[in-house]
Amino acid sequence: MEGSKVKMEQAHVVMFPFILQGHIKVLLSLGELLSEAGLYVTFVNTHQNHKRLANLQALTTHFPNLHFESISDGLPDDHPRTLFQDFFEGMKTKTKPNFKELIVSLNKKSENGLCPPVTCIIGDGVMSFPIEVADDLGIPIFSFYGTSARFLWAFFNIPKLVEEGQIPFFDDNMNYRIHGIPGLEGLLRRKDLPEFCALKEIDHNMINFFVEETLAITKTSGLIFNTFDELEIDSVQNVATKCSKLYTVAPINALLQSQIGPRAQSIASLGSLWDVEQNCIKWLDSQPSKSVVYVSFGSITKSSISQLKEFWHGLVDSGHPFLWVIRPGAILDEEVIPKELEKGQKERGYVVDWAPQEEVMAHKALGGFLNQSGWNSILESIVAGVPMICWPYSGDHFINCQCVTKVWKIGLELGDWDRLTIKTTIKELMGSRREEFQESVDKAAQWAKNCISKGGSSSLNLEKLIKDIKGIKEIKV
Known about the structure:
The chain is α/β, with parallel strands linked by helices and about 475 residues long. The protein has two domains: about 5-150 and about 195-270 and about 450-475, 3-Layer(aba) Sandwich (Rossmann fold); about 280-450, Rossmann fold. The strands form two sheets. It has a seven-stranded parallel β-sheet with strand order 3-2-1-4-5-6-7, sandwiched between helices. It has a six-stranded parallel β-sheet with strand order 10-9-8-11-12-13, with helices on both faces. The relative contact order is 0.11. The chain is about 50% helix and about 15% strand. It is globular, with a radius of gyration of 22 Å. GO terms for molecular function: quercetin 3-O-glucosyltransferase activity; quercetin 7-O-glucosyltransferase activity.
């Protein structure tokens, strides 16, 4: 924020993601796109995540219009921040005033010519308190929603399902089909809804809290959506009926690459909460084309030692080389990787704490991706044309898995985590049904390419978003 280079006529966007890696990564990519378009962007994290982010200075070198700030989330320093209920419940009382204070301070700095005044806020759609702050300060706000359109559409219909008596569930049949939601007939099961829908008391505070948090995005100036029209057009159109404006801009990482070219590869791992292990790329270089199974269960999934051992046996027994991400904190029982896994690494695989995922996905050696059905991972698989095996864990993972296996038919669901099932599923994906899945995912990859190309839906929506933000600036002036 050095004053000599600040252009006071720039539109100034303040962005605030939820605390998880996947939320930070994709919203940061959007921030990079906006800054590349000439907007002044302030990207806000909690103090804890700000300290963990890698090479922010390198990012600001690539994007001079991109600036970073941090605020306290109000939790003690020694809080594990894995109990999301604590974080969600504390946001309105602890995080909200700190965020508001930051916005006020940025506008004070603008009076001294150190930055442009704040034009608008882009807040993560899972949190409503940025909307309340924007309303208090009279600043327009857009919501960014990082999951699939189908999941959000299902979420919007929770009050309807409550009214019809489909929620709460009074038995334990989680495969029972949900009916009456346009566009999701025959697809949605109880297990595909958010976990809190399984609570037996419908007036439970947690149900009301999360429904209100999500419905708040309908009160914003627009919804920026991490999906693309060709992939989910019916659900996108349904969601659009609830929002004043809707901008589908995914796959955002691919859109960024299309906008900035070769620079994208050098910044792909910047802004990661974990140190990236680059040596795995050299290992991939030594493997045959489309032979490797990449295994990564994201930033929040936790596994027991017994589960890890079963995965190890299944991976080794499949006969395919594998690259496996086991991040710090991923093991429930202990932090030490069992000796069996170390042995497996020497025999056929490569185990890392964290991998440069976009680079891995684009590698010619990759033949399949075993993941937790996180939306970012699915989009990255589609862009790279890599079929996948889904092992859903929580949140939107279950409905994402349904889309992968039933709608787009670009992968398989892992029905159980015993070694025989894992081995059999990998051999099916990589062997007997390889051509079938490859043909389907290549088609989806072409959809993604079309939408980020000049004149494509995501490219045009990004242009529209930038124009609308600059229009707010012009109105204010």
